[in-house]
Amino acid sequence: MAPIDLNSDLGESFGPWPMGDDGSMLAIVTSANIACGFHAGDPAGILAVLKEAAKRGVSIGAHVGYRDLVGFGRRNMEPTSAELVADTIYQIGAIQGLAKAAGTTVRYVKPHGALYNTMAHDAHQAADVIAGIKAIDPSLVLMALAGAPIVEQARAAGLTVVCEAFADRAYNVDGSLVSRRLPGAVIHDPEAIASRMLRLVNEGRIIAIDGTEIELAAQSICVHGDTPAAVAIARTLRDRLIDNGVELKSFAHG
């Protein structure tokens, strides 16, 4: 059985407004997608999370997103190619600088929210983000939605891609994520989440929201850090996987 990576979106607090329990999540996950200041996060808070991640040996990814603090990066946007390429470079560069100061290194890029979902199927925006990554550091791994067109597009462009599944999100029959605007889009039961992810790891299958069984090949599992039960979900999932002989290990080396 191949090892599996557990990742979470962290560093999203802003000034005096906390978002999630980053310290507890860093004790559970093997990779951390760190906000870059465009959809969430501030420099001091991001640096603190990076230092804690370095102390715990958690791999670091740049969680790049649309320039959308008010909407938490979850609103669809249509930046020009020049804007999106430059925004991608800018965000990665910011995290690379902070990571160096924290004694760690950025190993991968995981787009956030609306950008992530748009890129999964929009070849134009995907190409812009891919171009931004290649311009600043082509050795960075891209984390992308398992089964989506972006996976082959990025690989064809020369990037290494890690496919991701979402522990606490419902899936459509085509492998896309159910819109957060719809009921049932976010799953909250830790035991149910642990069971479905164990089956995904063992069999490569998951049940879509309409009851259809779909195939999904993933090397990393995401647990969102901003939901009320995030830590309980992540801990239950980690324990279930370990108890069933699954090795938890980041895909990023070094």
Automatic annotation (TrEMBL):
The keyword Signal does not apply. This is 5-oxoprolinase subunit A. Transmembrane segments: none annotated. It comes from Microvirga vignae. The keyword Nucleotide-binding applies. Forms a complex composed of PxpA, PxpB and PxpC. Catalyzes the cleavage of 5-oxoproline to form L-glutamate coupled to the hydrolysis of ATP to ADP and inorganic phosphate. CDD domains: LamB_YcsF_like (cd10787). GO terms for molecular function: 5-oxoprolinase (ATP-hydrolyzing) activity; ATP binding. InterPro entries: Glyco_hydro/deAcase_b/a-brl (IPR011330), LamB/YcsF/PxpA-like (IPR005501). Its EC number is 3.5.2.9. GO terms for biological process: carbohydrate metabolic process.
